[in-house]
Amino acid sequence: xAQAAVTVVTPGLSSFLKSLKTTPxxxxxxxxxxxxxxxxxxxxxxxxxxxxxxxxxxxxxxxSRDAAKLVERVRDIGxxxxxxxxxxxxxxxxxxxxxxxxxxxxxxxxxxDTNATNSDLVSSSQPHQDxxxxxxxxxxxxxxxxxxxxxxxxxxxxxxxxSTEFSKRPPLSTHPTSAHMGHSLFxxxxxxxxxxxxxxxxxxxxxxxxxxxxxxxLERLADISKSTTMDLKGEVMDGIRELQDELDQSDExxxxxxxxHIHSNEIILTHTASTSVQKFLLAAARKRKFAVVHVETHPxxxxxxxxxxxxxxxxxxxxxxxxxxxxxxxxxIEVYVIPDxxxxxxxxxxxxVILATHTVLANGGLxxxxxxxxxxxxxxxxxxxxxxxxxxxxxxxxxxxxxxxxIEYGDAGSVVPFEEGGFVEKVDVENPLYDYVPADLVDLYIxxxxxxxxxxxxxxxxxxxxxxxxxx
Amino acid sequence: xxxxxxxxxxxxxxSKDTTPTSNEAEVTKGGSAAPPAEAAPKKLSGAELKxxxxxxxxxxxxxxxxxGPNDNPKGGAAKEPQKQQKDTKQPPKEKPALPxxxxxxxxxxxxxxxxxxxxKEPKQGKxxxxxxxxxxxxxxxxxxxxxxxxxxxxxxxxxxLQYSSYTICGSTARMVAMLLTFKAVIESYTTPPxxxxxxxxxxxxxxxxxxxxxxxxxxxxxxxxxxRWLKDIIIKIDPATPEEEAKQDLVQDxxxxxxxxxxxxxxxxATTGSTKIENGDVILTYAxxxxxxxxxxxxxxxxISFSVIVVDSKPLFEGKQxxxxxxxxxxxxxYFLITGASHAIKQASKVFLGAHAMMSNGRLYSRxxxxxxxxxxxxxxxxxxxxxxxxxxxxRVALDSIVGNEVAPAEELLSEKERVALLPLKPHLPxxxxxxxxxxxxxxxxxxxxxxxLKWIEGSDNLQMLQILYDVTPAEYINMVITEYGSLPPTSVxxxxxxxxxxx
Lengths: 472, 504
What we know:
heterodimer, A: Rossmann fold, 2 domains, seven-stranded mixed β-sheet, 11 strands, 53% helix, globular, B: alpha/beta, Rossmann fold, three-stranded antiparallel β-sheet
């Protein structure tokens, strides 16, 4: 097939993955950066796949056994990737996940170490171990601050303090990101209750404890990884492979929820071409009969939308596993394609809106293909439930302080072709590619972990990212 | 309105063009319906019997249909306009002859004809089209003058084609064009002996014209209002008036009507509307409205410094014309498609909308997409101002955009360019579909290949494209309606409508 031959040659995800096997790490990073910059790898899933594959190789090639250096290395690559294409938030998400993974691996090893050698110490330290981080749970307002006190965090700090000398403890017991006014005051009040002498107020307030902790923490990581005989690289790589599995399976896991949300004879509205939504609907189509109204998302996604509707895949040549992968219409579901302007007119008869997403933000809002905002708003006006389908990997610890920063603008030529020179010359044509949908317009998120209210997303963020990694 | 009148010579040449194609179509139709009827009588189980009966019925129906146009010229034509339209919904072959307002590329694909003929056959009676819009698909749109009765005036024939091809589009433009054409129709009218003009003109001379226009595109609210008004003044003509004088009076009345209800009204609305535009404003408008355009230009002439955002949508892209005109007059214009509407609305400070009609319950019936824009404006607390002449007010009420609406052919949704973009999908199509369509020659001209894309969609069992033309905007999204009578809240529409119709 001539077309297939062409697509293999064009740089993209598949060509990158292929070249990754043979090229050394540093050129691969450069290659990926250039692909990101040229938008030859775009959209969340391809970016996530490419990033995990690259990081797997980075970790694989990593020479030293020093965990701190590995963290620094991954973080450095992460910084370069995210600055190459800040709007592909998923790249940053994956880097953060990997960083968290390294910390966890180090931590688990230390845990088992200390458990084996001085288990009595650990058990005796249990009560005071809980204290400080309980207090910070209450006092922190931001979910990200909150994340600092999540169990993952506790395990990374506390065992370290167990294994090292007493003198090093005070700075450690403070939490790096939560060292702000309200927090420390709250800590003051709690001190009389803490059973351990080691948790002195001076420790909490010590100037060295603020800000200087991350490097300190890294230093410690380094010490530990040197001292113990663990297979850091191997375990991290296993973890990354698990991450890859998660990416692979997230759609299926999401789709497993489908029957809980779609009843028979429903009219469902969706937009753009999304593999996750498609699989979700297909899963429901196996058991139930319903109708789908597909908004075509002109001018940037309509080709993909038609492709999805007709063939079940976004674009020719995209690597999709072929087993029983068919379009909805072949599954006996009636599909109606409508232009974007019809959304309000149709909405009064729609039972449910299912949106695909580009990125989900920690406040429960989302960035999705342009048109999503008006669809969600129209649904709200008609009291139609809006369900957002997204893998956890799209969930980002980023808060949308500057919305415009998240929105990418596309080629104006797809709105008005440049052949119409007179028009293009005189009129400002704009083509925003993404919409920000505020959290209050969304009723439900369905991720590979299940269904969540938008207001609960911050907890899932806290579960998946380490507080130290939020700013790369 | 020079576009509105196509010479009759041109029109008749068109009709010559199209007759052979219609014959062709009949032949194929008859052929396809006949075989099952003949093949049936060998063994007769219950189910078979039923099938046979159905086939016969279908054949009969097809025959009746194909017989239609042949009978017509003989007479009794105007009685069954509905039936004739059914079989004249074939190839829009005459399209190329007309100046098309949009997508000339599509019009110049002659091969479309064949593809349609084939694809229509399997579709017949197979499924109810269009989700819950089935009730709107009662009458396919007339794209040709085949089957029009001989009573239809050539100028009206031309006008009808301009309607169905969107060459004349927009409710005011359509109404004005219709009235101007009716002037010619009235002038060419002579009362038959034994009849009075007041009794005969409406029922025998005007109604075939109106029926034909309706078959080309459903009448707009303003057209309905104008027709009602016209019938009213015709019936009031004193039978004693000599025919020539009565006709002159009517023509004069029509001119007055257009001047009063459209030209002057527009001026008044533009004057009032432009006072609402202040320095530094960003006016957002959707699609294209002539009154909005006049208002903006009036404000521009006054020297107010403001800019305009035009939001538009496929497939008509009416806003493009508006944006071009405004930019030409030196207005700063930004252009968005409706997918970017939520971004456009953030930059705007006021929203001006045109109307197709104002309903008596205060709702706005306008180009599809208007409701989305006003909803977003409402969410941003921007004032939404509707500019609307009182001819467009109607007694009718509407709650949603589904009960009363106009459907348009869905293939308009896919422009030539979009079809080309879809071509590479071909090898990935489901096997069932490709086998159904037969292996069309791959190396055809681009035109055949793009029309093939439409076949994919029509051939797919569960897939439909849907296009409606209007939507209804809830009254609570609208802050003000500016008419020639002044500015009012949407709730006052029925009051003004009553007083304006009572006055005549």
